[in-house]
Design goal:
Immunoglobulin-like; 2 helices; elongated
């Protein structure tokens, strides 16, 4: 073998080696700041057929874990289970897979550990039904996970005439959106979601429809004392109620923003409209636009909700200006 060939072979092995290196790291208890021993850790391979478990282990006395079988293609998911709650860390292909640190937190079912920081309701009335997109942004405790499987970590009200509510989309901090069932409670109109609220922000998106009536009336309840709540309607739609206060319009879409003043409120909705992304426009910036069209249930839901949070931010600024006057 020529000297140059040997160097090339060595370089090739050095490039390939990380792909077959093991995965290791430490589980740290974010509540105590100490390594967490005896924690179940799983190495999972996401596939088209579902999640495939490649290995299971437990952390040692120093909270360390390791897996040797890291030769799978594609991303891998490390999942730690602590006090009945899962904590995930994705390892993308080509990224370092050693010396990883995964925080876990002590769990509590004490009410008020996680609190609503923002809440919005988007109404999109059509000829036959009105779609309702509701978002709840929860702020978790910085050192605890709120988990109440019995009563539900998240609870919300849905009018009795609502249709189409089967699940809730959960958007955890730093994670991918997942679906969780909307479960009825013994209280009329109150639903719950069994999903732990970890430190940081977690958003819960609730979506349903209400048959159109004349006049179109929307009744709702806020079942939590904290946080600010806003109602948003598209251009061409008006919302009339003594329980609302108009705080302004979103400049780009001209959607109207109302502050919800009372826990129980009733709104008379007039007109039809939908938050719809513009298409075929020469100066289309890719941002959501408001058009007066027939609604399509849940179409382009994620950008609608994203825009609604932007609208909500504007509403908060307007409220702050009003308070300063």
């Amino acid at each position: 073998m020529r000297k140059g060939d040997g160097v090339k072979l060595l370089l090739s092995l050095l490039v390939i080696a990380p792909a077959f290196a093991g995965i290791d790291g430490v589980i740290v208890n974010g509540t105590t700041g100490q390594p967490q021993a005896n924690t179940v850790v799983m190495l999972i391979q996401p596939t088209q057929a579902g999640m495939q478990t490649l290995g299971t282990t437990k952390t040692d006395a120093q909270g360390k874990f390791s897996f040797d079988n890291n030769d799978a293609q594609g991303p891998r998911l490390i999942q730690a289970i602590f006090q009945g709650v899962q904590y995930n860390r994705m390892v993308p292909p080509g990224m370092p897979s050693t010396g990883l640190q995964i925080p876990v937190y002590a769990s509590t079912n004490k009410a008020g550990t996680a609190k609503v920081s923002q809440h919005f309701i988007v109404l999109q009335p059509g000829e036959k039904e009105m779609t309702v997109s509701e978002g709840l942004l929860y702020m978790g405790d910085p050192s605890l996970t709120y988990n109440d499987p019995v009563n539900g970590s998240v609870r919300f009200y849905v009018p009795p005439e609502a249709t189409g509510l089967t699940s809730v989309t959960v958007n955890p901090a730093g994670g991918m959106p997942i679906q969780r069932p909307a479960l009825k409670t013994k209280e009329p109109g109150i639903y719950k979601v069994d999903y732990p609220v970890r430190p940081g922000e977690t958003r819960f998106d609730v979506n349903y429809a209400i048959p159109t009536t004349s006049p179109m009336v929307f009744n709702d309840k806020l079942i939590y004392p904290e946080g600010s709540s806003n109602l948003v309607v598209p251009s061409g739609v008006t919302a009339k109620s003594d329980d609302l206060e108009l705080v302004g319009q979103e400049p780009k879409t001209q959607a109207s923003i109302y502050r919800i003043k009372n826990a129980s409120f009733k709104v008379e909705v007039d007109g039809t409209g939908s938050l719809q992304q513009s298409e075929g426009s020469a100066d289309d910036s890719g941002q959501p636009q408001v058009q007066e069209v027939k609604p399509r249930i849940y179409e382009s839901l994620y950008w609608i909700l994203g825009m609604a949070f932007a609208i909500l931010g504007l509403g908060s600024v307007l409220l702050a200006k009003n308070a300063a006057k």
